[in-house]
Amino acid sequence: SAVISQKPSRDICQRGTSLTIQCQVDSQVTMMFWYRQQPGQSLTLIATANQGSEATYESGFVIDKFPISRPNLTFSTLTVSNMSPEDSSIYLCSVAGVQGKNTEAFFGQGTRLTVV
Amino acid sequence: AQSVTQPDIHITVSEGASLELRCNYSYGATPYLFWYVQSPGQGLQLLLKYFSGDTLVQGIKGFEAEFKRSQSSFNLRKPSVHWSDAAEYFCAVGINNNDMRFGAGTRLTVKP
């Protein structure tokens, strides 16, 4: 399995500001993903974080709004830029391919973001 | 495109009763299938997964699920529900765990 540390666990931010969320895994993983879970909703994939290259974004999500970094096999960040109240959600980091093996996806505890 | 449907938004069962949560998927090939549980304020925990082989999959906490190709279904079952099972349950489909698609979720309430 993989232990995922996601920071911060929660934050309240002013509209127009940006927040960077960190995801640290205790072992090397092949895949890292970022999901959004809006209040009372299911999970929606934002993007796949690619090591050493630009992230792959899903329809409806763009790099300018959600820049992602993945400098190595154990760490990634998601930035929520120019926030508005509509960005209030839980943001979850997910990993798969622990130590190169075909494994199920593991999830962090999430970052609960409230934009005021 | 892959999609996952959980027809039941909210289910209420009595403690000790049996449970079945429905999940249907749409995909051209046999996908990898998962059930996750999310307790209030908690992250997602994997209950069970189906990659291949035996279509009846055993998971943690006494849950099982059966993959039925002919019905494109992967329903989750438990013979006797405990109060601690109250949570949100998500069915998900993916290929090699990449590009996972989640259902809308089913909220389970357990009555004493």
**Which secondary-structure class do the elements of chain A indicate?**
mainly beta
Helix content of chain B: under 10%
> Which term fits the overall shape of chain B?
globular
Helix content of chain A: under 10%
In total, the number of strands of chain A is 11
Quaternary class: heterodimer
First-residue to last-residue Cα separation of chain B: 41 Å
Task: Describe the fold and architecture.
The complex is a heterodimer of chains A (116) and B (112). By secondary structure, chain A is mainly β. Helix content of chain A is 0%, strand content 53%. Chain A has strands spanning 4-7, 10-13, 19-25, 29-37, 43-49, 56-57, 68-72, 75-80, 89-98, 106-107, 111-115. In chain A, β7 and β8 (75-80) form a beta hairpin. The relative contact order of chain A is 0.34. Chain B contains no helices and 12 strands. Chain B is mostly beta strands and 112 residues long. In chain B, the strands form 3 sheets. In chain B, strands 2, 5, 6, 10, 11 and 12 form a 6-stranded mixed β-sheet that branches. The termini of chain B are far apart. The A-B interface holds A 31, 33, 41-45, 48, 92, 94, 96-97, 102-110 and B 34, 36, 42-44, 46, 49, 51, 90, 94, 96-105.
